[in-house]
Amino acid sequence: MRYQLPECKNPKVPAPVCEFSHKMPLQVRFNDIDILGHINNSVYLSFFDLAKAEYLTGATSARVEIGGIAVAIVNINCQFYSPGYFNEPLEAATTVTRVSHRSLCMEQRIYNPTNGDVKCIATTIMAGFDPKTARGTEIPQEFIAELEAFEGRKLFVEKAGGKH
Length: 164
Prior knowledge:
Largest sheet: 6 strands, antiparallel
Number of strands: 6
Number of helices: 2
Radius of gyration: 16 Å
Helix content: 10-25%
Structural class: alpha+beta
């Protein structure tokens, strides 16, 4: 299923790399708010982690548990565009933009679904990981096939590189 995100009127927010195939509502708690009255920037990474876990368990047969998943986060970049507030409705949208033999790239956005205001965008690179040996490895072909089926498009590129 594809989700059309509401239009963001902030000209500094880049267009999505591709359509989003997963979204989830977020619950902001009182302790998520900083001294300025905004959602603390570190909280957004927790929101992204929750959305990644829900995405991966919905898209693949992997379970987000010890030894149950074939990838590990190796890089996260987060750009902030607008503050979020305590009683503001927020959602996280997630998609995989590409997969190679050893890594995959995700794009995620946290936004207000009522007005399209994008709070932040994260690009995450995850690498194949074998929890038994604690070493990097190739991403299993079944995992890639499940992601491609969920996204409804080809994700595999022969070599990682270029823009994620």
